[in-house]
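Input (structure):
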């Protein structure tokens, strides 16, 4: 599925969830009434979710007009106007909450990501997301990570291998699981293995690993791991890394830092839509 297909599916599900058999409150507005609305943000943020927002309104009123003052990726200040909408009043009222839900949630992901990316500036480390996403919104949230300047890990279990502790145990050790991964994984598919200490790192390198996750390593051990790997593998720091930790972790020389909080621990941006008659 393309991103556009995911957007349409997300919006269809959101509208069906909210409207069901009909908006009982919007029917109080005279049929055919036209309205004008302004959407503002009450928070500083990085905007994301314009296409989801538009799809909500266009699905219910294909003739509505949305005049955007910003675009995805823009930094905005509190009380800044994001867009103006003109169209059918009933449709506008029905689309309001689902549209704002998408915009406030995806902007929150982009805003959080930008904070982490900014904190890593001056170092080569990329800020990576994880699969800790809201059910049904993985493509949307991962898109928001890229808008915030971050990078996507695998989309799901189908497009990348990440060998963790339980995989290693079930397969019979690092050497065995890496041999199986190289033999069974489709070409060009990334293969990553998680290690928990320097001994496992050394074993993974001997087994041919080229993408290694350092799980809960101390800063000192991260620095040691970078020196030990000596460009033989790409190293990713992971495990409870906070925004305050980022400058120190990035300074160890790791190539990537994965952060579950980008999509998991977000606080929606405070948005408001006000309707007036034309």
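Output (sequence):
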């Amino acid at each position: 599925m393309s991103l556009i297909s995911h957007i349409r599916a997300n919006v269809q599900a959101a509208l069906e969830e909210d409207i069901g058999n009909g908006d009982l409150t919007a029917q109080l507005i005279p049929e055919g009434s036209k309205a004008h609305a302004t959407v503002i943000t009450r928070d500083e943020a990085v905007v994301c979710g314009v296409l989801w927002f538009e799809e909500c309104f266009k699905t219910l009123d294909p003739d509505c007009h949305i005049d955007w003052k910003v675009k995805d990726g823009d930094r905005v200040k509190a009380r800044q106007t994001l867009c103006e909408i003109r169209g059918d009043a009933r449709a506008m009222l029905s689309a309001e909450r689902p549209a704002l839900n998408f915009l406030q949630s995806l902007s929150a992901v982009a805003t959080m990501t930008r904070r982490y990316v900014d904190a890593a500036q001056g170092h080569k480390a990329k800020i990576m997301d994880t699969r800790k996403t809201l059910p049904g919104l993985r493509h949307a949230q991962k898109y928001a990570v890229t808008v915030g300047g971050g990078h996507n890990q695998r989309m799901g279990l189908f497009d990348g291998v990440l060998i963790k502790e339980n995989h290693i145990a079930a397969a019979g050790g690092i050497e065995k699981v890496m041999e199986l991964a190289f033999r069974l994984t489709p070409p060009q598919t990334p293969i990553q293995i998680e290690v928990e200490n320097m001994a496992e790192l050394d074993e993974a390198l001997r087994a041919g690993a080229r993408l290694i996750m350092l799980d809960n390593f101390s800063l000192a051990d991260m620095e040691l791991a970078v020196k030990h790997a000596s460009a033989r593998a790409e190293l990713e720091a992971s495990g409870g890394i906070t925004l305050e930790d980022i400058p120190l972790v990035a300074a160890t020389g790791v190539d990537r830092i994965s952060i579950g909080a980008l999509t998991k621990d977000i606080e929606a941006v405070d948005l408001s839509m006000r309707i007036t008659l034309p």
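Notes: The chain has a mean pLDDT of 97. The CA atoms of residues 182 and 191 lie 8 Å apart.
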